[in-house]
Specification:
The chain is of the alpha/beta class. About 45% of the residues lie in helices and about 15% in strands. The structure holds 2-phosphoglycolic acid.
């Protein structure tokens, strides 16, 4: 069975102490991760080492960075390389979150380069895609997402695509309290999988986890995650509340 993933995206929130307390609170609550399930914590860069240490030895629990740079090393003040992340034992990186695309002008091409460097270091990219509200209103979301996939992913080989995770995050549902209905989520996830099948074949497409993001919470996680093509969630706001995130982990199929 495909991997099912509950990924927390802390964004630019919490102090170090609050982050430590949150991880302790989550880990102290009963949660069960089956063999095909994973919990991933995308924490701010300064907390990666703390999180890595705190979660060491926990089965199916991983730490992720929220971004990385596209170059190997060098004079790029303020940036963080994949080699640095690898040296901390980090195994996942969130790439192309809509906030990075919007506020830091990350393009599909830059994201293609970031995907390449992550895969070169055996770090799993959680590649985010998804449309803004005006695109959804014009009912052109399929074309919009296809373009994101084409320009950032389609240069990858089948073997590489099998190593990535995709997160579909309709921008109009992020941090707005507005969730895509489970039917809307399923429809887009099935569409993305169909696109991948067209490019790489059904077996590859069937192996890629596709997470849903956008106001996932304890109260809607089961309904979203039981959709056949929804393989878990990338969770912002609700991942900052221990009881919420534990319930989201427990909602994985
Ligand atoms: P949200 O954020 O759960 O707060 O909507 C999701 C995300 O941006 O990854």
């Amino acid at each position: 069975m495909r991997k099912q993933i509950a990924a927390a995206n802390w964004k630019m929130n919490l102090t170090l102490k609050q982050g430590e307390e949150l991880l302790d609170a989550i880990m102290s609550k009963p949660h069960s991760l089956k063999e095909n399930q994973q919990a991933v914590f995308a924490v701010p860069f300064p907390y990666l080492a703390m999180a890595q240490q705190k979660l060491a030895g926990k089965t199916n629990v991983f730490v992720a960075a929220q971004n990385c740079y596209s170059k190997k090393s060098g004079a790029y003040t303020g940036e963080v390389s994949v080699e640095m992340l690898q040296s901390l034992g980090i195994q996942f990186v969130v790439l192309g979150h809509s906030e990075r695309r919007e506020y830091f002008t990350e393009s599909n091409q830059l994201l293609a380069d970031k995907l390449n460097i992550c895969l070169g270091y055996s770090i799993t990219p959680i590649f985010c895609c998804g449309e803004p509200l005006h695109i959804r209103e014009a009912n052109t979301q399929n074309e919009y997402v296809t373009r994101q996939l084409e320009e950032s992913l389609y240069h990858l080989t089948a073997a590489q695509v099998q190593k990535i995770v995709i997160a579909y995050e309709p921008i109009w549902a992020i941090g707005t309290g507005k969730t895509a209905s489970s039917a809307q989520a399923q429809e887009m996830h099935a569409y993305i999988r169909q696109q991948l099948a067209g490019k790489y074949g059904q077996a590859i497409a069937d192996s890629v986890p596709i997470l849903y993001g956008g106001s996932v919470k304890a109260s809607n996680a089961v309904e979203l995650f039981t959709q056949p093509d929804v393989d878990g969630g990338l969770v912002g706001g609700a991942s900052l509340i221990a009881e919420e995130f534990v319930a989201i982990i427990n909602a994985l199929k």
